[in-house]
Amino acid sequence: MKAAKAAVPVAGKRDLGKRILGKWQLYVFLLIPVIYIILFSYVPMLGIQLAFKKFNARLGIWGSPWVGLDQFVKFFTSYQFGRVIKNTLTISFYGLFAGFPLPIMLALVLNSIRSNRYKKFVQTVTYLPYFISLVVMVGILTQMLNPRIGLLANLYGLLNGREVPDLMSNPNAFPHIYVWSGVWQSIGYNSIIYIAALSGVDTELHEAAEVDGASRFQRVIHVDLPAILPTAAIMLILNAGHIMNIGFDKPYLMQNPLNLSSSEVISTYVYKVGIASSTNDFSYATAIDLFNSSINMVLITVVNFFSKKLGGSSLF
User: Fold this and answer.
1) Using one digit for the tens of pLDDT, what is the confidence trace for 240-268?
2) CA–CA separation, 197 and 108 (whole Å)
3) Distance between CA 72 and CA 235 in Å, rounded?
4) Is residue 257 helix, strand or coil?
5) Does the pTM exceed 0.90?
6) Strand, helix or coil at 53?
7) Residue 222 has what DSSP assignment?
8) CA 102 to chain centre
């Protein structure tokens, strides 16, 4: 009996080997993304040790002296710590609260439109801004909000007879400009996944609700909305993992000396202390970025836990 039991795993391994050899072309194609992920996602993780060292270019990463948590203490005690954390969280939560429900609402509205021609027109108009590069987007914002020649300045002056304030240099206006320009640019593209989820809703549910006398709005609330809640929960978990990471390009392009108190976020600060400064403190920049990634990991784990407990939808 023992010999028979021992022979089963061996036979299973042989069958697995035969299946792999029989479809070796597919596994060769699979090697390409695997090698890519290993080279560009896992191998660079060796550089994390820079956060615990005082980097010296002459000694290299491995030869630089170990300083433990000194780089983290330096960041926590820095006068910039409170400001960059506050700005990052303010913009992130503002963007999440403003940008997360709107694609869901757009998808529900588009799904309710019966005219295919009008639906395609609205989809095209809302999708197109997503394909505008961030550099062009910031250029458009700069031109439109220019206090002298911008479109807003001309309309404001025509209606009030006064010169419009320079909003791009106003620290209080920076979060609003950043968030709502991002919502306008991404709302159509982000609604695609919800439209796809709505396409799988059984039409018999709508027919039964209509027979029972439900209005179109009631069918949206009681049929369409529950159908996309699991998808919305997964998207919320994914967005929670980026709370501390709002990107680098757009904040940096929109920055100027006058709005720096509201526009300096973790990503731009890491760039400045690690690359743009005269000292190029790579260890300090790595420590800040590692702290940022750790917070994101904790957030996505917590949100995933509560989503699984409350609604049953989770990533892991």
Assistant:
1) 777 877 888 899 999 988 888 898 999 89
2) 10
3) 31
4) coil
5) no
6) strand
7) I
8) 15
